[in-house]
Structures are given as C-alpha cells and as structure tokens.
Write a structure and sequence with these properties.
There is one protein chain. The chain has about 400 residues and is mainly α. The protein has 2 domains: about 10-190, MFS general substrate transporter like domains (Growth Hormone, Chain: A, Up-down Bundle); about 210-405, Up-down Bundle (Growth Hormone, Chain: A), CATH 1.20.1250.20. It has 14 helices and no strands.
C-alpha cells in the first residue's frame, strides 16, 4: 500500500519525507518552547535590560514579524518551500545565537527583530511544504504536526524551567545556545527532504493574490477572532484563578498539563471528517458552543470553596479544550483548502498574520472581558465565539464561490 493511501499516521509517521518533516518540526518547536519560556528572563536577568525595554523590543519585533509572512510565503511559492524554510531556520539559529552579544537596547532591538522576522517567515514557508508532502490524508498529518508541536513546546518549557530555577549567567547562556542549536539541527534534518518544485502560476494570476482575496481575508479575520480562545487557558485562566478563586495556585500548572495532554492525545482524532471546507465549517460551528460552555463553567467557579472550584475549573478546561481541538482542526484545513496551489505560501503567510494580530491583542481583550468584567465578561466572550462559529460557514461558502473558475 502506498504511504499516501494509509488511513492514519500512527504514533510516528511512516519512514519517508513526512517523518523527516515531522522530526524537523518537533526539534524546532522544542526551541520555541525554550525561547518563549526563558527569553524574557534571559534579557532581564542576564543581558541587563529593563522590563520595559524587553517589553518594548519584543512588541516591536512581533509587529515587524507580522509583515514578513506574505512576502516570505510568496518567495516559497516561487523559489521552493524547502529552500525558503531552510534559510529561515538558519537565520533563526544565527539570530538567536546573536542574542548572547546583546547588552544595549538598540542592539537587542535589531537582533530580536531579525530573529522574529525569520520565525514569521518560517511559518509561511512551511505551509506549501506541508501541502506538498502531506499526501491524501493531509488533515490528519497537519493535526499530527500540531499535536507534536504542543508536546515539543512543553518539553522545551520544562527544560527552560530548570534554567529559570538555576538563574545563573551560565544557565541562561546554555538556554540561548540550546535554542539556536535546535533551529540549526532542524535545518540539517530538513535538508534530507526532496526538493518540491514550485507550482506553475496561471497566466492570469496576479502578483499578490492573497492580499486581493476579500473572501479569504474575511475567513482569516473570523478565524483570528476565534483564535483568541488559545490565550484563554494560558493567559486569562491563571490570573483568574489567582485573583478570584479559593482554588490552590498549583491548579494553574495542572490546567496547562491537562490541556497539553488532551491536545497531544486527541488532535488527530478530532481532525477526522475535517478534510474539506464544509467539514471545517461544521467543526468551527461546533467549537463555539464548547467555548461558551467551558468558559461559563470556569466563571461559575469564582468565589466557591477550594474543592468545588477546582472541580469546575478542571471541567471547564476539558470542555474548552474540546472546542480548541475542533477549531484548530478546522483552521488548519481552511488555511490550506481555500488557498490556490500556486500561492499556498502567500495564503499561509496571510493566515498567520491574522493570528499574529489576534495574539497581540488577546491579552488586552482578555483582561477587559475575563478579568475586568468577571463572569459576565467570560460569558460575553463565549457568546462572541459562538457568533463567529455561526458566521464562518457563510464566509467559507463565499470564498468557495469566488474560486470557481478563478485562477487567482
């Protein structure tokens, strides 16, 4: 049986390009987990920067990185996704390693912007590479990569936790060098992949097709609003537990582990049936009520004694994570299914840019809704997710109609 005809990918993909890409992705995501967990402390505890300088620099780098997605995606479409992805990983490795030379704000700003630009570019370049290698069961493979990425990020975060506990210059140096090494190693592994030739561009297609695609931009906007749910359990919930609950503070860590385990165990299964735009629309529609119910249960725990508050929070996390599984499976499918084959990188870059803006806005929005308004805010935000889920199928059908016979 051909590998593309196999109904699933199991614990590890079969030997071949898909396994190679999964390994490279896993290694790079370990680096992401290391960096996201320990970088801010490296800058303040080892590089000598102030908290305000670090916040300003990382915010500026994030905004700069958002601009890289579409151009990098177009480069991957035209020059080859493997080659573009390799370059972005190499630049990430060099950029992160260069952070060890940072002792002033302006050097910090320059280096971190380069590293973040490369990170955003790698997301866009990976899109057409995954599409070219995923085969017939692409939805399951993309979900597998997400589950593997969550596990890898958690491993990196655990390692960074050891560094933070040691809190020495040597430990922080090891963290930065280890992060750079993961990106370099991922590039080495990726080099074993076969080259994917660019898909020919139709003669009538425009240069920047993704930016002129109103229906797809609408789908991207709706998905970006829905993706704010990803920050509910990692940003709003910990602060909510500490400020409003009698529940023990160790519950914060338990909730994070529970969410990760569910995603790792069930993300591939949740992708079953989400192998078309119609299937993705149904999954998004289902995710909205799950978010509302999960957030309502969490909000109900406020002010209760420790035992019932703990039980309700854990129940809410499970329900919310089920919605997350459906939404992520749908999002992965829509980002691929609605993009023309010759412009997959561009569309991946645009989709990622929308999510980047949402992630940047999420802390402020969640602070307003969940922490500022309390229980009514949790319910209001859950209602917004339900509304987006109901509107998404109409936007998807609009995008499909505009694609009929249109080479873009």
């Amino acid at each position: 049986m051909d590998s593309d005809d196999k109904p699933g990918i199991g614990l590890v993909p079969e030997r071949g390009p898909r396994r190679t890409l999964a390994i490279a992705f896993f290694v790079s995501m370990v680096g992401n987990g290391l960096y996201l967990t320990g970088a801010a402390l490296f800058f303040t505890r080892s590089a000598g920067l102030s908290v305000s300088q670090v916040g300003l620099g990382m915010g500026a780098a994030s905004l700069a990185g958002l601009l890289a997605g579409v151009p990098a995606g177009r480069l991957a479409d035209r020059r080859g996704p493997k080659e573009t992805y390799l370059v972005t990983l190499a630049v990430q490795a060099a950029g992160v390693a260069a952070l060890l030379s940072v002792h002033t704000f302006w050097r910090f700003l320059a280096v971190i912007c380069v590293a973040q630009l490369a990170n955003s570019a790698s997301l866009a370049a990976r899109g057409p590479l995954v599409r070219g290698l995923a085969g017939k069961h692409s939805a399951a493979y993309r979900s597998y990569l997400r589950a593997a990425g969550n596990l890898a990020g958690s491993c990196g975060a655990l390692a960074a936790g050891v560094v933070v506990q040691l809190d020495t210059r040597a430990a922080y140096t090891a963290l930065i060098l280890g992060t750079a090494l993961t990106f370099a190693l991922a590039a080495v592994v990726l080099g074993r992949l076969p080259r994917l030739a660019p898909v020919p561009v139709p003669p009538t297609a425009g240069r920047w097709t993704a930016l002129r695609d109103g229906p797809f931009m609408t789908v991207t906007l709706l998905d970006s609003v829905m993706s704010i749910q990803g920050q509910v359990l990692v940003f709003a919930l910990p602060l909510w537990i500490v400020a409003h609950h009698e529940a023990p503070r160790w519950l914060v860590g338990v909730c994070a582990v529970l969410n990760t385990l569910i995603v790792v165990a069930l993300q591939v299964r949740a992708s079953r049936g989400v192998d078309s735009s119609a299937g993705a629309s149904r999954a998004v529609r289902r995710s909205g009520p799950a978010f509302l119910l999960g957030m309502a249960v969490i909000a109900a725990a406020g002010g209760l004694p420790a035992a019932p508050a703990t039980a309700l929070v854990l129940t809410g996390v499970v329900v919310h994570t089920v919605g997350e599984l459906w939404h992520e499976a749908a999002s992965l499918e829509l980002g691929f299914a609605l993009a023309p084959e010759h412009a997959q990188g561009q569309y991946s870059g645009l989709f990622g840019m929308g999510r980047g803006f949402a992630n940047a806005l999420a802390p402020s929005l969640l602070s307003l809704f969940c922490l500022g308004w309390g229980a009514p805010g949790w319910l209001t935000l859950g209602g917004i997710f339900v509304t987006v889920g109901l509107v998404m199928p109409y936007a998807v059908r609009w995008a499909e109609r505009t694609r009929a016979g249109d080479p873009r």
